[in-house]
Amino acid sequence: TANQNTLDTIGETIVMSLDDYTRNQRGDIGSHVRLAALKGIQQLCGVLPQLKIETVLLLVGKTLQQGAEKILRVREEAARTLIAIRVHKNLHPDMECLFDLFKIKDDSRESFKQIWISKWGAENMFPAYSKLLKLKSFQRQILQGLIVSAGDLTQSLSQKAFKAANTFMDECEEEQLETVLDHICSLWDEKPALLGKPMLKVLEEFLAREYFEDVEESKKLEEIFELCIKYTKAKDSQNAINAISCLNGMARMDVFYERAFARFKQLLANKKPFIRYQTAEKLLQNYEILSITRDIPASVTQALRETDWVDDSKDIDFFKETSKAIISQFLQAA
């Protein structure tokens, strides 16, 4: 029989393994590690009540995270793991809520279990995540899983992940928004390589829907603003473009307006033509919204449209002067 220290070490090792996203020349090594970790939880279920409750909640949260991610076989293994864990649902109120939501009983027939598992693989369980996000014990891990899937190139998967997240965000109170912002900041800080690109995509959506309008003074939102500024300088062109879109969304908030446009001034005079062009396009899109509450002259749209932002025959001083003239009109409306 394993002693308590050994059990705790095994549990903590599995928790860490469920965050392995290693890729190398042999491919997606991390997914194999995560699959093995999920199977490890199933083997550990007999002694689950002996683990520290903090470890148990992390194991459940990480399992739900895998159930929300983009690899079919990982989602299905997460479903098998949840079936194995359900016998211990009384260990914590959030675990009771979790399994009450799924309504899978201890005496469920094997055929029913197989159908249930296949639903996870077929992306049919994503709607449940809008409710699962309300369970504080698992919110951070679930959010990570949805962010990864929302940033995926598979349109159906991305749409389902976004719908689950948006449904939850539509109902968030101010205090809950602060918690979500805290999770976004900590996840982005801990896993920039994994979450940088999808995080920007999710933030662009959240800002377009104005979810953070009531918490614009939040310190965590300030951190996100600084990260968006940083990512506009990214070598990865898609990251830079997505960051410009996020900055565009944050410019609608009074607290970020002047600083966002100070950065747009630099971006319109960037050495890379596609950065200049994308910035001009985003500003044109934003003008319609900003002009509702600010007295911004319509002439800025003419200048943004008529300037050939990808014309390499013009030197950078031309774009600096053009940018200065355009942004000064936006800033006069601050």
Helix content class: over 70%
* Order of H and E elements: HHHHHHHHHHHHHHHHH
List low-pLDDT spans. Answer: none
How many H/I helices? 17
Would you report the number of β strands?
0
- Gyration radius, in Å: 23 Å
The main sheet comes to: none
Compute the average pLDDT: 93
Task: Tell me what you see in this structure.
By secondary structure, the protein is an all-alpha fold. Helices cover 70% and strands 0% of the residues. It has 17 helices and no strands. Helix 13 runs parallel beside helix 15. The longest helix is centred in the last third of the chain and has 21 residues. It starts with a helix and ends with a helix. The mean pLDDT is 93.
Features:
334 residues; mainly alpha; 17 helices; elongated
Helices and strands, with pairings:
Layout: H1 4-17, H2 29-44, H3 53-67, H4 72-85, H5 93-102, H6 110-121, H7 129-132, H8 139-150, H9 155-170, H10 174-190, H11 192-208, H12 219-231, H13 237-250, H14 254-267, H15 273-293, H16 299-306, H17 316-332
Helix pairs in contact: 1-2, 1-3, 2-4, 3-4, 3-8, 4-6, 8-9, 8-10, 8-11, 10-11, 10-12, 11-13, 12-13, 13-14, 13-15, 14-17
Summarize, please.
The protein is an all-alpha fold and about 325 residues long.
